[in-house]
Amino acid sequence: MTLRQLRKVASEYEVSRYSRMRKTELIDAIQVIDAKRSQGSAPAAVPAMANVVAATSPGSNSPAPLAVEALATIDEGLSDLPSGYGESRIVLMPRDPQWAYAYWDIPHTQKDELRRQGGSRLALRFYDVTDIDFSRQSPHSLQQYECDELAREWYLPIPVSDRDYVAEIGYLCNDSRWLVLARSLPVHIPPVYPSEWVEDHFVTVDWQADLRGQTLLILKHPSQRAAESTNAIYDSIYAMTESAETQRVAGSLFGSMPHVPGSHVPGSMAPEKAVSSYVFPSGAGLWA
Question: What is the SS3 assignment for 142?
């Protein structure tokens, strides 16, 4: 019987903390509870129950229950799950709007390598990466939690819900350096309050239409629409400044050109009195 099957039996026997027990501990706990149940039952009821099991087992489709002693010998040829898989990884999952759960698997060889580079204390870092590219931009906030070397999991409090977070595990150095062991993928923490986003759309669909793989409408969160409108305003302002820069350069070139007497516009400054801001490729001005 596998460890998972033993845990299922232990849950039926109401064994406390069975998820943290090893195989031998589970078998011992099941045997102890089974012995207590057999002692507490009436002596006359045991043969009756045995007769019922014996009478119903041959005619039933389900196999007869195995003895507790046989549970330890079913999977003797199977090895236990490995303690690690040789790859550094950390997984971050939201538990609820106020807590997140992280677990990791770091080989000892990589830990030893970072300790040789100056790492002294193992720690978790929790970043707010909402609407940013974490590989090129700084996070909105950072929380840090020092943890034990033997720890494989941790619960992290959420500072603000309805945002995106990333977890890192690494070593803190005495000179304030941060050596990364692994980084999780970004996860979105659900909001602690009901959503205020209400957006109803009615779509007419042909009864005979094949809708497999079809997208009829794409809904965007109000925050995404606000970001897009901000980008549009930014692009408009940038276009205006680019046009003004083009006019300035054009005016500078005009003031640097030789002019025929009388060719300038009446009422404007004479070309010989115009001051040019034109800069040669060398970096020197016209009168340098």
Answer: strand
One-letter amino acid for residue 105 of the chain: D
Q: Kindly state whether residues 97 and 179 are assigned to the same domain.
A: yes
User: 1 near 71, Cβ under 8 Å?
Assistant: yes
Q: Are residues 9 and 51 in the same domain?
A: yes
- CA 107/CA 84 separation, integer angstroms: 7
Give me the CATH number covering residue 180.
2.60.40.10
Angle between helical axes of 3-12 and 23-40 (0-180°, round to 10): 30
Please report which residue ranges of the chain form alpha helices under DSSP H. 3-12, 23-40, 45-56, 108-116, 222-256
> Is 121 contained in some domain?
yes
Q: Is the pLDDT of residue 47 over 50?
A: no
DSSP 270: P
Calculate mean pLDDT across residues 161-171: 94
Domain boundary among 126, 153, 188: 188
Cut 0.70: pTM above it: no
Q: Is the distance from CB of 13 to CB of 31 less than 8 angstroms? A: no
Determine the Cα–Cα distance for residues 188 and 34; give it in Å rounded to an integer.
Answer: 45
How many folded domains does the chain comprise? 3
> Structural domain of residue 50, as residue ranges?
3-73
**95, 167: one domain:** yes
User: Does residue 78 lie within any of the structural domains?
Assistant: no
pLDDT tens per residue across span 112-165: 999 999 999 999 999 999 989 988 899 999 999 999 888 899 999 999 999 999
